[in-house]
Each structure stands twice: as C-alpha cells, then as structure tokens.
Amino acid sequence: MPELPEVEVVRRGLDRWILGRPIETVEVYNPRSIRRHTAGPLHFAEVLTGRTLLAAHRRGKYLWLPTDGGDALVGHLGMSGQLLVQPPDAPDETHLRARIRFAPDDGRDHENRELRFVDQRTFGGLSVEPLPVPGNAVDHWDRENVPPSIAHIARDPLDPNFDPDAFAVALRRKRTGVKRALLDQTLISGVGNIYADEALWRAQLHYARPTESLTGPQIRRLLDAVRDVMLEALEQGGTSFDALYVNVNGESGYFERSLAAYGRADQACPRCGTLIRRDAFMNRSSYTCPKCQPRPRRARW
DNA sequence: ATGTAATCCTGTGAGC
DNA sequence: TGCTCACAGGATTACA
C-alpha cells in the first residue's frame, strides 16, 4: 500500500515529467475515482482542460499540483492507486480510471507522455480544488497553500517544519494506544499500517502502549524510527526515477526486502529470534515481537 | 473527546 | 473445477 515513501516517489516522478505544458484532454473512465470534487467528474475534466500544472507537492499521503488557474489537482492513492507517466501508445491498464494528455512540446513528441490514474480498488481519487493563496507556493512544504481537503492533515515527519515537541505534547494528550495515534493523520501524517508496525518494532514499543505513559526519550526514539524507516524505503524506491515511469505500486523494493515485523507472522524476529506474532487490530493486523515489544500491563487500543 | 463499526472496492488464495 | 468466503486496508461517516 502506498504510504509516505511511495507517495514521495510518485511526487518526484510527477515533478520531473508532467509539469509546464497545458492539459489538452481529460478522460474519466470511472466516476468513482473523482472524489471530493463536488461538481462531479464532468466538471473535473472540464475545469482541468487548458490548465498547466506548475508544481508537485505532498503532505503525508496526499499529493497536490497547483495549476496556473489558481486551483490544484489533488490526489490520494488510497490502497491501490497508481499515477503512471506513460507513452501514448502504451496499452491501457486493466484498471485505468482517468487519463490526462498534454499539449505537444514542439518537436519533442517523444517526451509527450500522458498521465494515467490506475486504481484497482478505487479507494483513491482525484479532484480539483481551489487554493487559498494562489501562485505563491515557494516549496512543497508551504502550509498556506494547502487545499481545503488536506487542511486537517498534520505535517509529516519528513516535513522540515514538523515540530517534534508539539507532536510529543499532542501525543501524550491523547488517551489511546500508540499505534492508533500513529495512524491518526491529524496528529502525524504519512504513517500507515506497515510503517507503523516497522517503527514500533524498531523503537521496541508495543502497539497498545498508552500514549500518556510514553516518556520523552521513548517518543523521540519512536519519531527517529518513523523517519529512518521512511528514509530507507525512499532510498530504495528512488531507483526508478530514471525509468520514465512513476512507480507507485506500493512495492518499492523495500517492501519485499527490508521489513522486520510487518507481514512476518511466525518468522524469526531479526533482533532476537523470537517468532513474530500477528494480532487483529482495528479491522487489520498488527505484527510484533513478543519479546522486544512486550504487551503493557495497562494496554490501550 | 474518544472509541467502534460500517462503508467504499476487487483480486487473491484457502477451503470445501 | 468452481464456488464461497476471509482478507488486504486508508479515510470518512455515523453512532455509542
């Protein structure tokens, strides 16, 4: 599943390949993939046509691309979404939901690639939304230019303006388990089930540990773990930047090779050899090492 | 304020 | 072989 590192890989691909040329056509094949766009998929296509995408920004798992019209193309990949930059003659993908074609770049037709939104489970979606302060974006961390549907999303751990102390205070104020808090995108964004489990394993914390009982050093260790695991995943996912293809399938190499806990039920913990255990958690799964991450006496989840 | 459960979806694989 | 069912899970919504 695309979490922050995968989405950042996509952002870099979009930043490199699809900015600066007017959109010529927009085709929507599944209206469900146009979400939050209250005026509907037809309007989505209409308003986007003729616009030029100026930049590619990200917060947590959300992407947004400001246009020369003062609004932005907003995207979330959900569980199975991909944004692919493809040559026009590439065969349509099975779950192709939308296609955006750009005006040719005189004489350089070989670079005239199109943007495709592919999404098997259609939990992801695209929309066009107004930007509060148009045309003012300095970098992709700029808070003032966040579209309305992303306004409630907290800064993510790779954002230079992410405030660890404020996070620690907000975290301890919550009366919940630490993993639930990690997955709360209004507290910290970009963390999904996979990286939550990996970070907790690295920080040697159990998912049901009550947030208010966490010490300052433990929170710092946890944050470092979140950042490290994401940066490592990003390094490995980054190898596909040159491929004229934006890799988003949630299998950034890292996925298969480097996971210590997630998805490894009944396999040896890389740190101590104890068998990793799988618990039901929030309609999904949590993976822990019973020895490195003992369940707290007062558990909360 | 916080927790719980249902909802949205489809491909995969296990079990019968 | 073919059916059924559990499962994967992010974000939002409704309800407790």
Automatic annotation (TrEMBL):
CDD domains registered for this protein in UniProt: EcFpg-like_N (cd08966)
Cofactor note: Binds 1 zinc ion per subunit.
Family matches, as NCBIfam families: fpg, PRK01103.1
Keywords, alphabetical: DNA damage, DNA repair, DNA-binding, Glycosidase, Hydrolase, Lyase, Metal-binding, Multifunctional enzyme, Zinc, Zinc-finger
Function description: Involved in base excision repair of DNA damaged by oxidation or by mutagenic agents. Acts as DNA glycosylase that recognizes and removes damaged bases. Has a preference for oxidized purines, such as 7,8-dihydro-8-oxoguanine (8-oxoG). Has AP (apurinic/apyrimidinic) lyase activity and introduces nicks in the DNA strand. Cleaves the DNA backbone by beta-delta elimination to generate a single-strand break at the site of the removed base with both 3'- and 5'-phosphates.
Molecular-function GO term, any one: lyase activity
Subunit structure: Monomer.
Residues that, per the record, bind DNA: H95, R121, K174
Protein known as: Formamidopyrimidine-DNA glycosylase
Domain Formamidopyrimidine-DNA glycosylase catalytic: 2-124
Family to which this protein belongs: Belongs to the FPG family.
Stored Gene3D superfamilies: 1.10.8.50, MutM-like, N-terminal
Annotated HAMAP family: Fapy_DNA_glycosyl
A Pfam family the protein falls into: H2TH
Cofactors: Zn(2+)
Originating organism: Cryptosporangium minutisporangium
List of catalytic residues: P2, E3, K61, R284
Domain FPG-type: 260-294
EC number: 3.2.2.23, 4.2.99.18
